[in-house]
Design a protein that fits this description.
Length: 376
């Protein structure tokens, strides 16, 4: 990896060493019907297939289409609030062996007006051939990208603490193995951290601001993985009141079990002991999860196998994470990665072939929550 510039902003930089034409396949020949995937993703799509990818409107998004046939024809459309974005036109590209790759960029500007270029969903249609569609997103405090089996990295802000999460996605169902390659302003050269993670399980590491991490690369030797990087916006020294919330985060690796449960428990959740908030009668995510009492829904998207809801609640991120960790456990969901760090919280839950991912970001007296349900 080249030496990274010092004192960088959280700008996304990815090093790609000729990515392999491989990814998660919905079927042996690739996706041939309509399906939805969550960022970060890499999906093989064949003629007749349509992939829908919801994206955050406050982060930049990048779509890369790679050809995997003699010739492929693909159309990319921008959607907002369930409709094709006003003023946009679907773009059709023909890819062959000579020009096998094409990229699209979304949400480069974030003005939220009726005539805005901001989109909340990308739709990819394949009319001929077979392609691989890979979607990544980057923002000031969170980056998500997919690693198909090579070395990819990004500069990060050395003033902030950082959490690195690697979720195994080996198509054969086996393990994914590789290493984190870290650069810091406090040492010379790279630090190598080997890892091995099972499919659909997450291994995570946390490094405090004192480590001054300035660059992170993920080198995959076997399988592939979904990568997420989190940096909280408040990089002041830990306050005494935050000590308990941050105690669970250590600068060493830990594996989030994310075990699946093949049985569905059907009973009402008991009241949360960790927060004064309680479940209301309103349900979200295909009626799988209760909406916290007092929450205001901002947006809901999708249905069936994949759906998402954004809501605002007068609670702290740790109250939100603890509420859903306990409440959903009572509903038969197994907690996976659970992280609370100052103004940010992340929770993953799994049951059978379904997964719920919840991100909570505090600001002022309220917390914005983004929750997504994905069923394979």
């Amino acid at each position: 990896m080249k030496t990274m510039p010092k004192r960088v902003s959280f700008a996304f930089f990815v090093l790609i060493l000729w990515p392999a034409l491989w990814t998660v396949e919905a079927s042996p020949g690739g996706l041939t019907t309509a399906a939805t995937a969550e960022v970060p993703c890499s999906v093989k799509i064949s003629a007749g297939g349509e992939l829908r990818v919801p994206i955050d409107t406050d982060r930049k998004a990048a779509l890369e289409i790679r050809n995997a046939a003699d010739e492929s024809v693909v159309t990319v459309a921008e959607y907002r609030n369930g409709r094709q974005r006003k003023g946009s036109q679907p773009e059709t590209a023909t890819l062959d062996r000579n020009e096998y790759r094409k990229e699209w960029r979304f949400n480069k500007f974030f003005e939220q007006t009726p005539e805005s270029t901001v989109v909340d969903e990308i739709r990819i249609y394949v009319k001929k051939g077979t392609v691989y569609a890979e979607v990544a997103q980057t923002g000031d405090h969170r980056i998500d990208f997919y690693n198909t089996g090579y070395q990819r990295g990004t500069n990060v802000d050395p003033r902030l603490s950082i959490a690195v999460c690697v979720t195994g996605d080996n198509p054969s169902g086996g393990q994914t193995s590789g290493s984190l390659l870290l650069e810091s302003e406090t040492w010379t050269g790279q630090k190598k951290v080997p890892f091995t993670v099972e499919k659909d399980k997450t291994q995570s590491w946390h490094y405090p601001a004192e480590e001054k991490i300035s660059g992170v690369e993920v080198d995959i030797l076997k399988g592939q993985a979904r990568i997420s990087l989190f940096q909280p916006s408040d990089y002041r020294k830990t306050k005494p009141a935050e000590t308990k919330a941050r105690a669970a985060l250590q600068p060493t690796s830990k594996t989030a079990t994310a075990a699946t449960d093949k049985t569905r428990v059907k009973h009402n959740p008991k009241p949360s002991r960790t927060t004064a908030k309680s479940a209301s009668r309103d349900m979200i995510l295909n009626d799988e999860a209760p909406l916290m009492d007092g929450a205001r829904i901002i947006k809901q998207m999708g249905q069936g196998a994949t759906c998402r809801v954004d809501f605002e609640i007068a609670a702290t991120p740790d109250e939100v994470i603890n509420f859903y960790k306990e409440t959903m456990s009572d509903r038969g969901w197994q907690p996976g990665m659970a992280m609370i760090h100052g103004p940010m919280g992340v929770l993953q839950l799994s049951r059978a072939n379904s997964q719920i991912t919840l991100h909570a970001t505090g600001g002022g007296q309220k917390t914005m929550v983004k929750a997504a349900l994905t069923t394979r």
